[in-house]
Amino acid sequence: MSTDLRDALADRLDRVTPPPGDLVAVVRDGRRIRNRRRAVAAGAVAAALVVGGLAVTQLVGPSDQRAGKGDVATDPVVGAADGLRAYADPGGDLRYGGLRVPTSQVPGFDTDAAATPEGIVYYDAGFPELFGLDGKIHSLVPGPVDGRADFHPTVKADSTSSRVAVAIERDGVPRIYVVDTEAVAVVDAINVVCDSCDVVIDAFDDGAVFFRDGNGTSVWDLDGNFGRPFAGPGTRIADVRNGVVLYDGDVPEPEPGVGQRDYTYVPGAIDSQLTHDGAHVLAWSSTLAPTGAGDPLRLSVTEEEGATNWTVDTDGSVLVASRAGSATKVSDCDPVTGACDEVEVLEVSGGDLGFLGNDM
After folding, report:
1. For 28, what's the count of Cα atoms within 13 Å in the CB-facing half-sphere?
2. pLDDT tens digits for the chain (360 residues)?
3. Do residues 112 and 103 touch, judged by C-beta distance below 8 A?
4. Domains of the chain: which residue ranges?
């Protein structure tokens, strides 16, 4: 999308008077129900939270959807019933759900972006956007952003819902938004005020957003609408799924409080991932270690057969890239049995095939 088009759209939208604000209505029918799909009404709300020494201001406004800003995808015969299956040829196309777009259109498609059942969420000059299954670009948050080049807050998707956590910087203040990607609507948002405000979102599990700044890691629980310190600066959260926290460094010591959830803590390397049930750790190998007393999960496409890259897909299956002569084979593996089915064999230019949201 060109700068002129963005500026024209922004000017036009700035002249539109938003409707009067309503309180946010969010229906929660329970936890750990995978693939929840509900419309969320977002209105104007202002509140204040205090997380230890972390001051948090809650801000929710009308969603700026701007659907159809661009249409650069090709062959829009799409679907994500078997997972989004998003992967990229660094020198060619990014493929997801049956669509293809040039990788140059999705900056930071690896660690800064995330795959969702509705498409790819990524940052364009600091602005979070969705490359949807309709082949169009949808803006996810309202208003302007600072667009600082060295601000990399990442995107994290909640495997139990159609929500993602994203962050922007506006007037030097980081804001974290939770957005429903199915409705393309803001669910909730907070301002983060801290001593060192390079905010990074590390995980999003069942309505709880884990984010880090120079003071350590905090958790923002949307169900109870509260936040609290979760771990000090000596801890990095690699992933959280189904109440299992994968961490590196010091064991997290969350500040106690009303409504605090019970978590299981498992040490693991940064950039490793948990399966959606939290039962296994995916870490640069086709053998996934158990987080508890269970057995390892062994994928049928192994390193001996050329496996080089891995990721957990939106449906919980494991995607594997492996060498097939001069080409690369993509396989989709069952997260229970480890059996793998071939998805595609393709020639890759410009480096190894890349998966969304990690460096594996």
Report:
1. 15
2. 444 434 444 443 343 333 333 322 322 333 333 333 333 333 333 333 334 333 333 333 323 322 234 444 444 445 667 899 999 988 889 999 989 988 888 777 777 899 999 999 999 989 999 999 998 999 999 999 988 888 889 999 999 999 999 999 998 889 999 999 999 999 999 988 876 578 999 999 999 999 999 889 999 999 877 889 999 999 999 999 999 999 999 999 998 876 678 999 999 999 899 999 999 999 999 999 999 989 999 999 999 999 999 999 999 999 999 999 889 999 999 999 999 999 999 998 877 888 988 877
3. no
4. 3-64+141-270
The Cβ-side half-sphere exposure at 60, using a 13 Å CA radius, reads 23
In contact, 275 and 291? CB cutoff 8 Å: no
For the entire predicted model, the pTM comes to: 0.80
CA distance 120 to 225: 27
CA distance 27 to 20: 21
What tokens appear for 185 in the block? 């609507």
Contact 142, 127 (CB under 8 A): no
Residue 51 identity (one-letter amino acid): V
Tokens encoding 25: 């209505």
Structure tokens at 33: 């129900």
